[in-house]
Design goal:
Blueprint lengths: L4 H11 L5 E4 L5 H9 L2 E5 L2 H9 L1 H22 L4 H4 L11
Parallel strand pairs: 1-2
Helix pairs in contact: 2-4, 3-4
Length: about 100
């Protein structure tokens, strides 16, 4: 319920490009984090996936964060981005529809 994170990021980035945006809500993995960064987020927050891992073990948290980092690197590779700053400027094929 509510406004989808992607829609919020797009609208806020257009309305106030000087704001530092945080993408949070529905971020399940590193690819969701990459999408949020590309849509205007400077930071990305995640709760459910990390909390699920935390309920399992410290090793599960480390594994989860390492997987997210790998997925972010994959997103950078696939978009030809050298780093997250470049990912934030990567071309969009089309604006997401909601």
């Amino acid at each position: 319920w509510g406004v989808p994170t992607a829609r919020s990021l797009i609208d806020c980035a257009r309305a106030a490009p000087e704001l530092e945006l945080i993408g949070s809500g529905g971020v399940r993995d590193g690819l969701d984090a990459a999408r949020a960064i590309r849509l205007g987020a400077r930071l990305v927050g995640q709760a459910a996936g990390l909390l699920d891992a935390a309920l399992t073990s410290t090793d599960a948290v480390v594994d989860h964060l390492q997987l997210m980092a790998s997925q972010l690197r994959l997103a950078c590779f696939c978009t030809g981005s050298a780093d997250l700053a470049a990912l934030a400027q990567a071309p969009l094929l089309e604006e997401p529809s909601f």
